[in-house]
Design brief:
There is one protein chain. By secondary structure, the protein is α/β, with parallel strands linked by helices. About 25% of the residues lie in helices and about 20% in strands. It contains nine helices and eleven strands. The protein has helices spanning about 25-40, 115-120, 135-140, 145-155, 160-175, 180-195, 260-265, 300, 315-320, and strands spanning about 15-20, 45-50, 60-65, 85, 105-110, 130, 195-200, 245-250, 270-275, 280-290, 310. The chain has a seven-stranded mixed sheet with strand order 2-3-1-4-5-6-7, with helices on both faces. α4 (about 145-155) crosses α6 (about 180-195). The protein is globular, with a radius of gyration of 23 Å.
């Protein structure tokens, strides 16, 4: 019989997957639960956070396992997991992804950076940190990030055998996309093998789970529901929605044809008025405001001169190359209208 390495007071071993819509965390959670329940003799449950699952927005997937004689009557979100899988490390800008991790827990992070940098940004001074380049593997094998992440997660959840997960992968993709079965198997195996692991002593005090609260509620909402900043979505930073790539602008190749701006769904491109060689006033592309870039790369496809190219994002690139917009009414208030 499969024995869980540790459980909480209810007898559950709990896993929480932190991701953004489109990376396959929901399917990864389903496959993980299936491997544990149907092929490893455990009792288990899986469910995801719905309502905000639009592509590029934060989502969570939850998996609970317990011994076969225990019934699962708890279907609330997992707040103190034993294992956390971070599919997209930029989520830490918007969400406390390691909130509530138990003292001897494990965080599996999709990244190529060093341990100290990730611990600092994820505010994770304790527990085991596992790093896997899931994006690099997914790009090379032409699959989604979820398969190498499942492999890395299974490396730390040794109560499920890799053969069980491979069976689930084959069953899942045999009907949906049979031509991707072997590629997903390879990505899973590479995720399992190509991990870096670092353990850190458990703290005397664990981090408690903090549930985010809305900025406005029934006690704090302004009278009449007034929005003081017209078009206030301009304040939002959507850079956490990028799935690992962003457009890089090469100014010397640009002909300022506006093809990029025509297909951009947001406000990424910054234009300024200049005088051309014939003395006429024209609009010229000055740069990209990466605050609004979700990494859809439609601009790269539309650019006729290859002045925009897809580049894998590295920490600090967007901040160093971003040209900020200047919006007169961005902050709101009466003074903005005078």
């Amino acid at each position: 019989m499969t024995m869980l390495p540790k459980t909480n007071e209810q007898g559950f071993f709990e896993i929480r997957l932190e991701s953004i819509g489109g990376l396959g965390a929901n399917l990864a959670g389903k496959m993980f639960a299936e491997a544990g329940v149907l092929w490893s003799g455990l009792n288990g449950a899986n469910f995801s956070s719905y309502g905000s699952e639009k592509k590029g927005t934060p989502v969570k997937s939850f998996i609970r396992f317990c011994e076969p004689h225990i019934e699962i009557r708890d279907h609330s979100p997992i707040t103190t997991p034993h294992v956390i899988g971070v599919f997209h490390e930029a989520l830490a800008k918007m969400v406390d992804v390691t909130s509530g991790l138990v003292a001897d827990g494990t965080a599996v992070v999709n990244s190529t950076r060093e341990f100290d940098d990730i611990r600092r940004d994820l505010r994770l001074p304790y527990g085991t940190l596992v790093i896997v380049d899931a994006l690099g593997i997914a790009v090379e094998e032409r699959v989604k990030i979820n398969m190498p992440m499942v492999g890395a997660l299974l490396r730390v959840c040794s109560f499920i055998q890799p053969e069980a997960m491979e069976t689930v992968i084959r069953r899942t993709f045999a009907t949906k996309a049979p031509h991707l079965v072997e590629a997903n198997i390879r990505a899973f195996r590479r995720g399992y093998e190509e991990v870096r692991i670092q353990a850190s002593p458990a703290p005397t005090e664990e981090r408690t789970f903090v549930r985010p609260s809305p900025r406005f509620g029934y006690e704090t909402q302004l009278i009449g529901g007034v929005i003081v900043a017209g078009g206030n979505s301009l304040l939002k930073n959507v850079s956490g929605s990028r799935q690992g790539f962003l457009p890089r602008w090469e100014a010397d190749k640009c002909i300022h044809c506006v093809a990029c701006d025509n297909v951009c769904p947001d406000l990424c491109f910054v234009w300024e008025e200049r005088v051309d060689k014939k003395g006429r006033k024209q609009m010229f592309l000055a740069g990209i405001d990466y605050q609004y870039c979700k990494g859809c790369l439609k601009c790269v496809e539309a650019c006729p001169t290859a002045a925009l190219v897809a580049e894998r994002e590295v920490p600090g690139f967007a901040e160093a190359h971003s040209l900020k917009h200047s919006f007169s009414f961005m902050k709101g208030g009466m003074e903005a209208w005078q």
